[in-house]
Specification:
- The strands form 2 sheets. The protein has a two-stranded antiparallel sheet. The protein has a two-stranded parallel ribbon with strand order 3-4.
- α1 crosses α3 and α2 crosses α3.
- It has one domain: Arc Repressor Mutant, subunit A.
- It is mainly α.
């Protein structure tokens, strides 16, 4: 909660999402949907993706630690895809032969 001139104001969905993403530990991943649920909007996974896309640099977010519900990188094969995989592997996150992160081992619940 934010305090503004003696009034308590609820944080916005964006504030909550940014805070959750900033707290994903090194070597762990979470999903767009899990972030959305924990930020109070179970149907907000696409909003989480947009926040990551538009605000990762502004808030210095560890964007590479967010994957889809299958444990896959959501980018199509590209430089961004390769960068995300490389950053995760540098943190010790392993991928199976289908390109998926083992969520049972690497998942972080906010």
């Amino acid at each position: 909660m934010n305090i503004n001139k003696g009034k308590v104001m609820a944080k916005t969905f964006t504030d909550l999402v940014v805070n959750i993403i900033k707290n994903i530990p090194r070597g762990k991943v979470t999903t767009y949907g899990m972030i959305a649920i924990c930020a109070g909007n179970p149907r907000g996974a696409r909003q989480v993706a947009w926040i990551l896309h538009s605000s990762s640099t502004k808030y210095d977010l560890p964007w590479h630690r967010v994957v889809n519900r299958h444990g896959e990188i959501s980018f199509r094969p590209s430089l961004d895809f390769s960068l995300q995989r490389c950053l995760l592997e540098e943190e010790g996150v392993m991928f199976d032969n289908r390109g998926r992160v083992d969520l049972a081992e690497n998942l972080w619940w906010p």
